[in-house]
Amino acid sequence: MSEPLLEVQDLVKHFPIRKGLVTRTVGAVRAVDGVSFTLQRGETLGLVGESGCGKTTIGRCLLRLIEPSSGSINLYVDGKASDLMQMNPAELKRVRPRMQMVFQDPQASLNSRMTVGDIIAEPLVVNHVCRGAELEQRVVSLLEAVGLRAQDRRRYPHAFSGGQRQRVGIARALALQPSLIVADEPVSALDVSVQAQVLNLMTDLRSQFGLSYVFISHGLGVVEHICDRVAVMYLGRIVEMGVTRDLFLNPRHPYTEALLSAAPVADPREQRKRERIRLTGDVPSPANPPSGCRFHPRCRYAQPICSQQEPQLTEASPGCLVACHFATELKLAGV
């Protein structure tokens, strides 16, 4: 995983707030406000945080399903960096096969009027990849790759369970042989008993097809299971990023510490020993974020500097980036 596939620098997405008959702009919702990260080939990077922190917006901006306000998104194609932000529609169409998305709700993301075979074949037909007997064989191969049967191609989405529908969505994402897949909460709509099956499938497909994932989730157990690195988001910014195991064992940011303290563990004795950190107050509005550190109104370690100066994402230890003025001084409780 030494070769980069994706480099994101200062990504910003603000949604304008408009009022009045003339629809004048009176403000902006700062959904994503200066996010930077790198994704290596073959790596799975998790984006975690509570609802509304900007995770899904980042995923959609990466594929330009929504247009970012500013920043750069460099996708490495054949060893050369291509800035997706600078591409016109024709140039973007040529690189789109390299990046695909798996959506959160498989029921809503699949066309109920099309058979599963037609759903998987559609990207191949639209991009003029193959047709006829070769198209049929590719569809069968993709179905078998995700654990479904060849005869399932003649059935409609409503005839499948939630987990099977998500497998169809994954097969459709694999059709054009992408390098990057953005998975937006791919198992949150599934039963707990099915989640592990889908996660294991995605791990196997990563090895089989040489994929890289940006894995968006609010489930810490899911992220710990599948991700190599984790980026923790709060109110449109990354507050901590590091190797999954190190981040879970030794959180450096107070918000990460609070998130991990809320995650249950299987052993009741261990659960009783853990300190539960209850954050006070509500999440501030992204239309009017606090000054300085955005987490300081809810942080139990906050000092005067936290409300005055915004901390930058800096290296607190090898491989661990933290946006906190006191990351190297605080001895956060082990979780």
**Structural Rg:** 21 Å
Instruction: Determine the oligomeric state from the structure.
Output: single chain
Measured as a percent range, the helix fraction is 25-40%
Task: Count the E strands.
Answer: 12
Please give the largest β-sheet.
Answer: 8 strands, mixed
Order of helices and strands: EEEHEEHEHHHHEHEHEEHHHHEE
Number of helices: 12
Which sequence of strands runs across the widest sheet?
6-7-8-3-9-10-12-11
Distance between the termini: 28 Å
Poorly predicted parts:
none
Tell me the overall shape: globular
Provide a brief overview of the structure.
With 335 residues, the chain is an alpha/beta fold.
Attribute tags:
335 residues; alpha/beta; eight-stranded mixed sheet; four-stranded antiparallel sheet; 12 strands; 25% strand; globular
